[in-house]
Amino acid sequence: MPSKLQPYLQYWPxxxxxxxxxxxxxxxxxxxxxxYEMFCGGRSLSAFLKDLFRIPDKVQAAMDAAMPDxxxxxxxxxxxxxxxxxxxxxxxxxxxxxxxxLWQRFVFPYFKQLVDxxxxxxxxxxxHFDSNWTRDLAYLRELPKGKCVFSPDGTTDIFKAKxxxxxxxxIMGDVxxxxxxxxxxxxxxxxxxKLIENIGPSGFILAQGCDIPANAKPENVKAMIESVK
Length: 229
Hints:
single chain; six-stranded parallel beta sheet; 10 helices; alpha/beta; 6 strands
């Protein structure tokens, strides 16, 4: 682990508790991901994808070796912080970047292990998946029912997610960054109402589709908030 991260990781539990003392309860206060994302980030996307074809067994062996530490770290954070939920996500591991054969070998089994561990600790797993995961939404039904929140970034078809996952897990999202930055308050309000009426109101959390962009128009953010009333 890089030494620069150590002070941050040591301070984080205190920061979460300080926020709670002020009456601010973080919904998802910790971030976890799978070996695929770590290796891909370290190797670069193009080099790592070549690894999956040239040395697949070595890659899988390395992933299997890394998972016990990742799971133990997740368990310890859950036990120490006792959060409502934790962020379990991916970005380059989206199924749009890989063939089904590779995704089913190097991505989903590891997400399932991580989610199962988090849920066993009594914590909700917020599945924040950047990029397009529409193709493999049905696999998420293998995750514990009623223990996860599916949180796409605006790329995955959230209405298809409702169709496939609506009775299995909560859905969160997915007001696009482009709409908050470039749209009008009326457009934002209309899209939010569409989400509330077609995906909600139960089993749904209205939110931005990933992060609210730095250049979002304040009036558009206000329109998103006002739409729930």
